[in-house]
Amino acid sequence: MPRLFIALRPPGTVRDTLLDAMGGIEGARWQDDEQLHCTLAFLGQVDGTQVEPLIAALEQVESPAFAIEVAGVGHFERKGLPSALWAGVPLTEPLARLQRRVVSACREAGIVPEKRNYRPHVTLARLPRSAGPVGDWLALHGRLRAGPWEVIGFTVFESTLSPAGAVYEPLVEYEL
C-alpha cells in the first residue's frame, strides 16, 4: 500500500534559502533538497485501488494561481521535547481554499486525510530525543524569509520510509 501526501514544492531559490539555514544542532536529521515541501494533505497508507479515484478527483480541483512565502521558523513538540523544526508559511485565504479543495477531493475518492488543524510549514529537521538544544537556532533564524513564489500547481507524492529517512517520489503533478 503506498504512503501518500499532497504538497506544494517550493522553487529552487526558496529551497536554497532553507538549506542555508540548516545546521548547528547536534543530532538533528536535516531534510535534503528533495524532501522540502509544504503539505496540503497527508493521506498515509492508501489502498492501491483508491489511487485511480484519487487522481481523478484531484483533477477536478480548481484554483487560480497565488503567491505564498516562507516567514519565520518554529518547532513541534512531542511529550514536551522538540521533535521537528520548521519554516512557517502564512495561511492566506487562497492557500486555505486550495487546501480545503484538495481535502474535499480526497474525501470524494474515499480517502480521509489526517485530521489535524492545517498549519502550513516546510519541515527542516527531525529531532530525536538526543538532539541538542534548539533555542539558539530558533533565535538566529526567527526572521527567516524566502519568496514569495507563485503557486501554479500541486503534487501527489509517495513516501517510502528507510533507515536514512523518507524518500519522496512525485507521482502526479497538477496545474492550477
Describe this structure as you would to a colleague:
The protein has a single domain, classed as Alpha-Beta Complex (Cyclic Phosphodiesterase, Chain: A), CATH 3.90.1140.10. It is built from 4 helices and 10 strands, in the order E-H-E-E-H-E-E-E-H-E-H-E-E-E. It is globular, with a radius of gyration of 16 Å. It starts with a strand and ends with a strand. It comes from Croceibacterium soli. Its EC number is 3.1.4.58. Hydrolyzes RNA 2',3'-cyclic phosphodiester to an RNA 2'-phosphomonoester. It catalyses: a 3'-end 2',3'-cyclophospho-ribonucleotide-RNA + H2O = a 3'-end 2'-phospho-ribonucleotide-RNA + H(+).
Give the tags:
single chain, 176 residues, alpha+beta, Cyclic Phosphodiesterase, Chain: A, 4-stranded antiparallel beta sheet, 24% helix, 38% strand, Cyclic_Pdiesterase, 2',3'-cyclic-nucleotide 3'-phosphodiesterase activity
Q: Low-confidence stretches at least 5 residues in length (pLDDT < 50)?
A: none
- Series of H and E elements: EHEEHEEEHEHEEE
Helix/strand-derived category reads: alpha+beta
Q: Main β-sheet: number of strands, strand sense, barrel status? A: 4 strands, antiparallel
Q: Estimate what percentage of residues fall within beta strands.
A: 35-45%
Question: Helix coverage percent of residues?
Answer: 10-25%
Number of domains: 1
Shape verdict = globular
What is the residue-averaged pLDDT?
96
Function: Hydrolyzes RNA 2',3'-cyclic phosphodiester to an RNA 2'-phosphomonoester.
InterPro entries: Cyclic_Pdiesterase, Phosphoesterase_HXTX, RNA_CPDase
Enzyme class: hydrolase
EC number: 3.1.4.58
